[in-house]
Amino acid sequence: MCITDVAKTLKMTPKQLFSFLSINSWIYKRPDTTNWIGHQDKINSGYLEHSEYVYRDRYDSERVKTTVKVTAKGIAKIAKMFESASLN
Fold first, then answer.
1. How far apart, in whole angstroms, are the C-alpha atoms of residue 44 and residue 57?
2. pTM of the full structure
3. Band of pLDDT at residue 86, cut at 50, 70 and 90
4. What distance in Å separates the CA atoms of residue 34 and residue 31, rounded to the nearest whole number?
């Protein structure tokens, strides 16, 4: 699932979840980019994966965009982490 849909599933705002994942080293952005990228250890653990798709930009050039997806295993882990953080 995309991070926005995961946020809805976990009954939080997307902004909260993006912030939480960034602070807890699940996702990051490279300088001067807008795309979130998953940390490799979270990908290797099976919590995150990347999805790529091809699109055409406004100059009709073919580009590839990568999006972060959260696996079912990742959703369960995030829910536990968020619950623990909320209790503290």
1. 31
2. 0.83
3. low
4. 9
